[in-house]
Design goal:
Shape: globular
Structural class: alpha+beta
Number of helices: 19
Number of strands: 14
Largest sheet: 8 strands, antiparallel
Radius of gyration: 26 Å
Strand content: 25-35%
Length: about 550
């Protein structure tokens, strides 16, 4: 917090000297994280003197700065305007920097649209949105995928007609990306056309759809407060002759997950099932696949709850789409903190005798969403050749960091006039140090594999309430410190029949909460300081 305040009042020349100092080489990436939080005109100009997005040697630091800009809660409109100008002007960015720049422009535009002063900066927002839509129209193949991921960060109503158009005419992969984008919108943005298209996609009344598109469309239908008629149609789908057993299993799992926390929903589902003997039997309600969906509370107190949502869509015995979501909940308001997504395609033919899509390249990777902002995907391998290269060389068997960042998710300053006329100053700042790392080991000899993905975060929140007058100075300060971890391990054995075990673990961690109260009378020796320290295991 103190470094951010210093950064906000520092001049362009001072920041340039700091970035250019050899003694800071070891913490250069952290400095770019910090300057992405500071976001003054001077700080951005200084960074642009030292950092060149088209320089491949600076790609990692470029991403660190852009990631920090994208997650920051209060974007600087002038920086957004400059990023749009630079994107239009330069064409030879490294691929990963180009995608991160696109995602950052979209994320900053969305956050700018939520500021009270948005009207003043509408032209900047409009230019950014127009650039993203034009880019989608003029690009093809993988380039279109980048723009669709950017529209997920933009969350704009005016992009809905374009997204619907892609759903009607796009490839399977493009449709999956569109449904992911639509799912990131607030439910109030889902108009009748979106919900109608979601029904068409899930029930496949127009054509055959990718299983991920169907499950994502189902998520939207279930979250949009479905009518009794639609719920009945969904339940009766379990009794159809659909051969996509994993889609049916996913539906069953989602109905069960929502029923656990919503008594009214549970009563409706049970009433539908019990009213018809054709539904209420083992043949219909038994597990038909390996797909899972579950929701668990891991932190519960008067200030709110923290829940973990884990969803796995399986195909040919392998995870096709997996999500681990950490959500804070209070007074029916949800805030997604982190989302770890796993995706694969074209791997079924390697370990399964089932019929698979022969035209799909073997691909696997992870997607990370931080505080609602999509980060570019991290690809483990693209194509069977790269996969075999990892297998034979063992390059993926070492724990490798994919995403590291310093973030400032809490940054609030407020002055309140009290009844006697005194002014109370309230300040809250919170920093997060985040690390996502992973490794994978595959043995073709033993025909088994194991992967491990670890998320670790250090969270520090500091806040105070201060009252300063000529006759007394009083302050209450608090700090919270914790280092939560989350690991996802997958064990796979394909020596005979496929055995798949996924273990999601949250090790215990220490939660520290310290409170300091001080009081001082100017011109006297009167000075009081009281402290309270608490520690608990979560």
């Amino acid at each position: 917090g103190k470094l951010v305040e210093i950064g906000k009042i520092s001049s362009k020349d001072d920041i340039i000297k700091t970035l250019g100092s050899k003694k800071n080489n070891g913490i250069l990436s952290q400095l770019y994280d910090l300057l992405g939080i500071v976001q003054t005109d001077a700080s951005h100009q200084a960074v642009m003197k030292k950092l060149f997005f088209d320089d491949r040697k600076q790609a990692d630091n470029s991403e660190r700065y852009l990631w920090s800009l994208s997650v920051s809660t209060q974007p600087n409109p002038q920086i957004l305007d400059d990023l749009v100008r630079r994107f239009k002007k330069t064409s030879n960015f490294p691929d990963k920097v180009k995608e991160t720049l696109l995602l950052t422009i979209a994320a900053m535009s969305y956050k700018l649209s939520n500021l009270p002063s948005f009207d003043k900066y509408f032209k900047i927002y409009e230019e950014a949105e127009e650039m993203l839509l034009n880019g989608l129209s003029l690009s093809d193949s993988e380039e279109r995928h980048r723009y669709l991921r950017a529209l997920k960060n933009l969350k704009s109503n005016t992009t809905i007609p374009k997204l619907i158009e892609v759903l009607r005419n796009g490839t399977d992969k493009e449709c999956v990306l569109v449904w992911k984008a639509i799912a990131s919108f607030h439910p109030s943005q889902w108009n009748d056309e979106i919900l109608s298209t979601a029904k068409t996609t899930f029930f496949q009344t127009d054509r055959k759809h990718d299983s991920s598109s169907r499950t994502l469309a189902l998520d939207i239908l279930l979250e949009a407060n479905p009518s009794d008629c639609l719920l009945k149609r969904l339940v009766y789908f379990l009794s159809t002759s659909c051969k996509s057993f994993e889609v049916m299993q996913y539906l069953m799992q989602k109905l069960s997950m929502i029923s656990e926390t919503n008594p009214d929903f549970k009563h409706k589902i049970q009433t539908i099932i019990r009213s018809d003997p054709k539904l209420n039997n083992y043949a219909i309600l038994s597990d038909k696949g390996l797909s899972t969906a579950l929701k668990r509370t891991f932190l519960e107190n008067s200030n709110g709850n923290a829940t973990l949502v884990a969803v796995q869509e399986i195909k040919s015995g392998i995870v096709k789409r997996g999500i681990v979501d950490v959500i804070m909940e209070k007074s029916n308001v949800n805030q997604e903190l982190f989302r770890l997504g796993i995706f694969t395609s074209g791997l079924g033919s390697l370990i399964s005798s089932e019929e698979t899509e022969s035209d799909e390249a073997a691909t696997a990777g992870i997607e990370l969403t931080v505080l609602g902002t999509q980060i570019r995907p991290f690809i483990f391998f693209n194509g069977q050749g790269e996969l075999m290269g990892h297998v034979w060389s063992g390059t993926a068997s070492e724990m490798t960091p994919a995403y590291q960042a310093l973030l400032l998710p809490y940054n609030h300053l407020q002055y309140i006039r009290l009844a006697p006329g005194l002014i109370c100053e309230m300040d809250l700042k919170g920093a997060v140090s985040f690390d996502l790392s992973g490794k994978i080991e595959i043995s073709l000899w033993s025909r088994n594999g194991v992967s491990l993905i670890e998320k670790a975060a250090g969270l520090f929140v500091n806040g105070y309430m201060r009252l300063e007058t000529a006759f007394v100075k009083s302050q209450v300060e608090f700090s919270v410190l914790m280092e939560p971890k989350l690991s996802l391990q997958t064990d796979l054995d394909f020596s005979s029949n496929i055995s798949l075990c996924m273990r999601l673990a949250q090790p215990d961690f220490v939660y520290r909460h310290n409170i300091h109260k001080s009081e001082r009378v100017p011109g006297s020796k009167h000075q009081i300081r009281k402290s309270k320290y608490s520690k608990s295991i979560i």
